[in-house]
Write the structure tokens for this entry.
Amino acid sequence: GEDVEQSLFLSVREGDSSVINCTYTDSSSTYLYWYKQEPGAGLQLLTYIFSNMDMKQDQRLTVLLNKKDKHLSLRIADTQTGDSAIYFCAESSGNRDDKIIFGKGTRLHILP
Amino acid sequence: EPEVTQTPSHQVTQMGQEVILRCVPISNHLYFYWYRQILGQKVEFLVSFYNNEISEKSEIFDDQFSVERPDGSNFTLKIRSTKLEDSAMYFCASSGRTVAKNIQYFGAGTRLSVL
């Protein structure tokens, strides 16, 4: 079945770039998403990319999609303490009535 | 900015009791969803709802679960007889389904604790 995999932890120094990677299995994925979850909070949609795009940039966030390898990444430039959170990679497909399949989440820890 | 609102933020119940989790989706949205996240595990799809009926449901969404849109604004998830393993964070989401878009916006969640 459909699956989304991502590493569980990432530690980055404040001011450096963070790169969170994700792989997915469903070749019919239409949308790929990054959601952010801060402690005790809900799922905040950070950004998304349509499957016919390779890259999307939004201020400090850059999303790269390699559809051939089914690999998605999120780069956060100039990482700040407020970026400390769990980042969920997710995908949906029009074939599945658009339910979203989530990865387990990557916990981003910011070092001073 | 419009948002999805969920109440209560935390619900504690005894095993075997019925619970109703409430959600107010974004006002002009047409598609509604429930997901759950057991502590330390993935966020899992439960059910999608459109035009007053269930569009799709997962294996988790058995006969103990039901959803309803009782009026023009609320969307509820009912668990008839809660089990210990129903303890989780429950997220409601909604989407507007404009052309070539399925962007789901999530609420802050209801933490359900079954004792």
